[in-house]
Model the fold of this input.
Amino acid sequence: MMERLTRNRGFNLETLTDFSKLDVPTKKHLKNVYSVLAMSMFAAAAGGAVHMFTQFLKGGFLSAIAGIGLLLLLLVTPYNGKNQTKRIGILMSFAFCTGLGLGPIMEGVTQIDSSIVPTAFFFTTLIFVCFSLSALLAEERSYLYMGGLLGSGLTILLVSSILNLFMRSYFLYQVHLYLGLVVFSAFILYDTQLIVEKFRRGDKDYVWHCLDLFIDFIAVFRRIMVILAQNKENKRKK
Done:
């Protein structure tokens, strides 16, 4: 795709911002989605900071239960065109709990190397931006056909995770880690195009659309942090 863009238009800033295939209402919807996503990232960062730098709250079992509860609350609070402020509040609370839940991992990798967390965030943001642009600039909604394959990937991840609870296999853990990175990176492509397609079919719920991308981002971020921490540990052992 990038080769086609380079050949036909020239690879420049104008190419990267050419969303002429998207109509004005779709662009406005995407603006709402990414605005709420940015707010969610700040809420998650606040949650992680609370765990790492205060004794007020700590991530763990209770934060996970709270996150699940808030997710269910968002699910049973359907979009009606007038309750988006309430639903954004629920999403921000969920994002805060998610960040709180990431706190123990962030704390652990920071003890290995304090640069891992910002580096992981940078690479996750880079992947997210590149894949989102690729999805939005695609001439056809070709990535929507990845749904079945990605569903199979999630099933494999779930099964391997359950098996490894009993097997405690390092190899299986590594497969789960790297396969998860690939699957959730691909979900950024898929969910971005799915959001556009849903909106064109009348689904204007930008809060739930934001949730899809937020979950993708956090899943990629978590795995990149662990991979970077493993690499640092392996270098130290050598």
User: Anything to note?
Assistant: The chain has a mean pLDDT of 89. The chain is about 80% helix and 0% strand. The CA atoms of residues 120 and 225 lie 5 Å apart.
